[in-house]
């Protein structure tokens, strides 16, 4: 099956190189635009809803989220068994501080009275802007502009500027500014990807109070006990009256004001909202004092200053991360949106990660998956190495929990990372497509290897990376075995690979191949650093055992078809009847029992093909082409992780047309809602994958132990491609046209790289 992006498909948001313009209110797309127009900073994220709230009768999903902060609830099984996941973590939804509701002569100012309405998300500066004209039933017109952003420099801060202009009248306008922890949750029955996230079920009110021109709330997260504070402060224009009917209800604080407007003149209201959290045993007053101090710092600096420093952060980010595509505006907008979303969603404090939906919606309950390690960290290692390190540091912070999980699963050594989690505990209630995906360990090892090859960061390896490699490597020798009936080859049984339409198999090719890569890398690393091996308690005998397992790893192969077998049994199954499967029955997981799917040759996403992409030069191009030709027609691409990998695979094996089609699907996966579920959050791994399509696929960039390699083959339709890379304390700019590339060393020591396997040495400032 082939994933493509139709050139005639109408775009939900208008095309622009640096903006997401929303040119008209569309009730049917309100919830989708909430996702697309989200703003965040890796800790705090808030969906792109209207300040006055969702219009009556439209589907919506309000949400403000804190990354790494979660509630916990017991998983209820009809039938349970030993070591089943016990609790589910849910990314915390917190009070909505965006609320600004206006009235003119007692009539609500909302979208129903709009004469025109436009918004745009300015990705260059990280600001959501809104501009609209409202008319009352009596003909009074009010022009409104808002600017909203989540500060990149002040992780706890959300700020809003509201500008009001009375177009054809003079008189009072009332304003209600609120902090709302009562907004409804969202649930879509029958779709396991969505989950059910409700602020009412996850937060318990500890205390709340109004303050002068603001208010504060303190909650406890259910299950985890984490304390969460939300505080806000309004800065009002001169002459504003504070009405005495200030309201305080449980989980809802409101301040009411009256603004006197003069025809043709504008007045501004600034709102600052701060969120912070602390461990369950922390002092409540201390957390509120911390929040109050952060709030005071923000409004004392003023809206213009906090906006300036926020925009300065984005300027620096784009200097290193921007990608330009000369020949396709839709793809240009798509890749910038994807890079923008990655920056908004990735945790930066070593205590949080990046959720599958980022901070843009409730999908997958905000869980962390292997998406981070296989898709995001390889990208960030070359764009924002420090951020990549922080994501890996988060995994290191949960190493002890991974050790405990291995013991729960009856393994005496090593660490087993959870398939899906927030706080380090396994949260997957369906073990065939959850716990059985042991390849999460290999994904983390792959991310460590990717970061190390891109940065050469020896200190990280000594402090964190090597220990994670050692503990996950020890686990593989617990899980796998040397089969005495098969010449003592190393086998791994009863696992699930990336293809979740095939579960609980022996010798999944992807898993075995990635474990082989991990063990070989770990052995090479520790043999070169014997003191590190000693410090980690790795003996020469243990290293020898790992090397033997890598050397004798069984990689299933079918000689008749001359392809790698996905596992020991996959090629024995009957093919799925694609011809007679109605289009409305995709994705299969929503329409067929898992057992029906498991007994067929059908893939949800790249599996063997993914292994071949990640293994790079270790698999011949001829072999990659044969594997791709066999497995792609059996792949539904029901997972958003699939299209980008197939784009790289087709580019690498020379089918540029198909590579371009799959890239188009990846680059605009969310902007055009290709999977029909962006309403509950963007697809973070796919976003990272779209960058990999351009850089690994069309530019042929590979970071190998031997150095940096390029083999460009850019589709003619994309014209010229330009991007930057951080590589081992150097900054490079690469421009690609067709099969040619220009490389400029912007900063750092001279570098020898390989263009179409030809060694080229460049010095700082030079362009070749």
UniProtKB/TrEMBL annotation:
SUPFAM superfamilies: Galactose mutarotase-like (SSF74650), Six-hairpin glycosidases (SSF48208). GO terms for molecular function: hydrolase activity. It comes from the Bacteria. It holds the Pfam family Glyco_hydro_65N. InterPro entries: 6-hairpin_glycosidase_sf, 6hp_glycosidase-like_sf, Gal_mutarotase_sf_dom, GH65_N, Glyco_hydro_65_C, Glyco_hydro_65_M, Glyco_hydro_65_N, Malt_Pase/Glycosyl_Hdrlase. Residues 336-691 form the Glycoside hydrolase family 65 central catalytic domain. Residues 702-761 form the Glycoside hydrolase family 65 C-terminal domain. Gene3D superfamilies: 1.50.10.10, Glycoside hydrolase, family 65, N-terminal domain, Maltose phosphorylase, domain 3. Keywords: Glycosyltransferase, Hydrolase, Transferase. Residues 25-276 form the Glycoside hydrolase family 65 N-terminal domain. Belongs to the glycosyl hydrolase 65 family. This is Glycosyl hydrolase. It comes from Alishewanella longhuensis.
């Amino acid at each position: 099956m082939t994933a493509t992006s139709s050139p005639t498909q109408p775009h939900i948001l208008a095309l622009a190189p640096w903006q997401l313009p929303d040119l008209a209110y569309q009730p049917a797309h309100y919830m989708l635009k909430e996702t697309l127009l989200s703003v965040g900073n890796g800790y705090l994220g808030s969906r792109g809803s209207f300040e006055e709230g969702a219009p009556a009768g439209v589907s919506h999903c309000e949400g403000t989220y804190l990354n790494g902060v979660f509630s916990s609830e017991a998983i209820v099984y009809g039938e349970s068994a030993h070591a089943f996941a016990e609790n589910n973590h849910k990314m915390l939804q917190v009070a909505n501080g965006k609320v600004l509701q206006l009235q003119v002569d007692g009539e609500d100012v909302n979208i129903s009275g709009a004469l025109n309405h436009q918004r745009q998300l300015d990705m260059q500066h990280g600001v959501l802007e809104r501009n609209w004209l409202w008319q009352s039933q009596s003909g009074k017109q009010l022009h409104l502009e808002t600017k909203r952003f989540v500060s990149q420099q002040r992780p706890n801060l959300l700020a809003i500027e509201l500008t009001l202009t009375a177009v054809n009248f003079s008189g009072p306008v009332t304003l209600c500014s609120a902090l709302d922890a009562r907004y409804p949750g969202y649930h879509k029955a029958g779709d396991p990807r969505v989950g059910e996230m409700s602020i009412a079920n996850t937060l318990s009110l500890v205390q709340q109070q109004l303050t002068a021109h603001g208010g504060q709330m303190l909650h406890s997260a259910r299950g985890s006990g984490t304390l969460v504070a939300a505080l806000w402060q309004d800065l009002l224009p001169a002459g504003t009256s504070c009405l005495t009917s200030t309201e305080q209800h449980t989980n809802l604080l409101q301040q009411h004001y009256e603004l006197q407007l003069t025809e043709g003149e504008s007045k501004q209201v600034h709102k600052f909202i701060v969120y912070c959290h602390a461990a369950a045993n922390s002092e409540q007053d201390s957390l509120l004092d911390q929040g109050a101090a952060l709030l005071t710092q923000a409004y004392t600096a003023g809206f213009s200053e906090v906006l300036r420093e926020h925009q300065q952060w984005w300027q620096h980010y784009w200097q290193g991360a921007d990608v330009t595509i000369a020949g396709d505006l839709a793809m240009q907008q798509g890749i910038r949106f994807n890079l923008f979303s990655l920056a908004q969603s990735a945790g930066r404090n070593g205590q949080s990660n990046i959720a599958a939906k980022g901070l843009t919606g409730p999908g997958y309950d905000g869980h962390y998956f292997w998406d981070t390690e296989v898709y995001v960290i390889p990208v960030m290692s070359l764009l924002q190495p420090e951020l990549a390190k922080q994501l890996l540091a988060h995994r290191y912070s949960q190493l002890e929990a991974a050790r405990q999980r291995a013991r729960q699963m009856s393994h005496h050594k090593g660490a087993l990372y959870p398939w899906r989690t927030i706080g380090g505990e396994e949260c997957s209630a369906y073990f065939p497509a959850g716990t059985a995906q042991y390849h999460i360990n290999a994904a983390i090892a792959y991310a460590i290897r990717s970061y190390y090859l891109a940065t050469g960061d020896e200190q990280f390896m000594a402090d964190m990376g090597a220990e994670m490699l050692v503990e996950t490597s020890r686990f593989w020798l617990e899980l796998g075995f040397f089969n005495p009936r098969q010449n003592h080859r190393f086998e791994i049984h009863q696992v699930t690979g990336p293809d979740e339409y095939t579960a609980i198999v022996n010798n999944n090719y992807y898993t075995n191949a990635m474990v082989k890569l991990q063990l070989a890398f770990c052995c090479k690393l520790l043999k070169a650093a014997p003191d590190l091996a000693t410090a980690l308690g790795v003996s020469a005998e243990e290293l020898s055992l790992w090397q033997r397992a890598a050397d004798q790893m069984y990689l299933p192969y079918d000689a008749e078809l001359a392809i790698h077998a996905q596992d020991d049994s996959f090629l024995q199954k009957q093919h799925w009847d694609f011809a007679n499967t109605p289009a409305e029955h995709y994705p299969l997981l929503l329409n067929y029992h898992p057992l029906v799917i498991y007994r067929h040759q059908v893939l949800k996403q790249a599996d063997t093909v993914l292994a071949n992409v990640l293994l790079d030069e270790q698999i011949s191009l001829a072999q990659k082409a044969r594997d791709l030709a066999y497995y792609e027609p059996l792949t539904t691409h029901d997972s958003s992780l699939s299209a980008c990998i197939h784009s790289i695979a087709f580019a690498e094996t020379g089918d540029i047309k198909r590579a371009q089609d799959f890239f188009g699907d990846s680059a605009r996966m969310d902007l055009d809602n290709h999977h029909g579920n962006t309403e509950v959050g963007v697809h973070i791994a796919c976003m990272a994958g779209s960058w990999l399509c351009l850089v690994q696929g069309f530019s042929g960039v590979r970071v190998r132990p031997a150095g940096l390699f390029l083999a460009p083959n850019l589709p003619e339709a994309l014209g010229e491609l330009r991007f930057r890379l951080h590589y081992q304390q150097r900054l490079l700019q690469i421009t690609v046209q067709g099969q040619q590339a220009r490389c400029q060393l912007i900063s750092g020591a001279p570098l020898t790289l390989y263009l179409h396997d030809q060694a080229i040495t460049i010095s700082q400032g030079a362009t070749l």
